[in-house]
Amino acid sequence: MTIGALLLHRRRWDPLALAIGMACLSLLISVGKVVFLSFAVCGLYLGLARPRSWRGMPIAFTGMLAAWAIWQIGLSLARGEPLDGNRVLSYAGLEFACALLPLGLGLVRHPAHSLAWGARIGVIALVILAPIDYAMTGARVGLGKNEAIFAFVVGACAIAARLPTGNRLRFLPDGRVWTYLATVPIVLSGTRAAMFLFVVVAVLDLRRAMPRLRASGRRGALALVAVVAAAMLAVVPVGGFLLDRVESGVTEIEAYEATGLAVGSVDTRMAMWSSAVRVLAKNPLIGVGGTARMERVAAEAGPNEREILRYQHLHNVVLDEALSSGLVGVALMVGAMAAFLANALRRSADPLVRDASITLVAFTVIFGLFHGVLLNEWMVLIVFASMAVILTELRRARPFGAARARVA
Predict the structure, then answer these.
(1) CA separation (Å) from 90 to 74, 87, 94, 97, 331?
(2) CB atoms < 10 A from the CB of 315, how many?
(3) 131: burial class by Cβ within 10 Å (0-12, 13-18, 19+)?
(4) The pTM is what?
């Protein structure tokens, strides 16, 4: 069987594979990475062997993402940075793979449907597993992985879960509620930055709901009050846990301002960021390199040098990229996200798709201000794979189920 015939034969089970891959990705199971990288390999073959397959692809997004990855790889190699343990190279390689995903998904009729169904299965599993994990350990939930990584992946999965599918599977119906179900695992993870997700989606959803609430009058107001009350009751069991996380952060900031010494996670970030800005001012265009940035930042930190060297990155997506690949790298990173958002908003008139696209970018940026959101393979993959799938779906004749029933 030729490669072309194999690709055509795969069309029967590619949607199922994509759904399984997304479900596994949301649960931090490595099968998910294998599935998405397999589609990327197919994209590489088609891009090289069949140039006509480029027609109809999201060229701006693919081009910017590939250019950013090539810039990072080229700059790292030109600096002579070691290959072993070079996180910049490995994550840039993943970004390049995600740039090829639209080509690899070319034969999947509705890839966003599979993405959403897999994400919904993942959300259901997480709502069950996270409380069990918390009840057994009493500690922050991460399902065996870093809690911040877990929280971000859950949030991105919850965004993908609200993408419309035309209600083709009754037991996994369309709706905005899928995102709010992720409140349980995210709160139990204790990751403060991830909780901004619900601020973003609540603002967008409330904006969409206001015209209907005005039209329905008293009945709509009572429904809104009921939803708010239910949400507050759901948070009560873990409210103390959540407040402890917030109070500890405030205490660290106050102590750092008084003494100038960093001893926790919040105050160490403050020390790192101030030192990183000074280093960046000396090397703005191309940075200092991914393997040298922490040492250079620590050297600028005075009494906090030892504390900073305990960390592998700066916990800020802009500063991490700026010191690794310079402001040129930051511009290419921003360009890739802007190309996705502009394409998604221009091509889609569906409010669910538009809101999901805005939320994905906003969540990545907000979370990235406090964590190395693009310095982990799970995070990189779920962000740019979701973007690639959404843009690929928008190139279909009837994207996201054109005849679907509208969802509140």
Answers:
(1) 13, 5, 6, 11, 20
(2) 23
(3) middle
(4) 0.86
Query: Can you give the residue range of the structural domain that contains 122?
Result: 11-393
* pLDDT tens-digit profile, the chain (408 residues): 555 555 556 667 888 999 999 999 999 999 999 999 999 998 888 888 887 777 778 899 999 999 999 999 999 999 888 887 788 888 999 999 999 999 988 778 899 999 999 999 999 999 999 999 999 888 889 888 889 999 999 999 999 999 999 888 888 999 888 999 998 899 899 888 898 898 898 888 888 777 766 666 555 555 555 555 555 444 444 445 555 555 565 666 666 555 666 666 777 888 888 889 999 998 898 988 888 888 888 888 778 777 788 888 888 999 999 999 999 999 999 999 999 999 999 998 888 999 999 999 999 999 999 888 888 899 999 999 999 999 999 988 778 865 444 443
Per-residue tokens: 320: 């991490």
If you search the block for the tokens 């779920």, which residue do you land on? 382
Looking at the 3D structure of the chain, how many domains does it have? 1
Q: Evaluate whether residue 119 is within a structural domain.
A: yes
Query: Has residue 221 been placed in a domain?
Result: yes
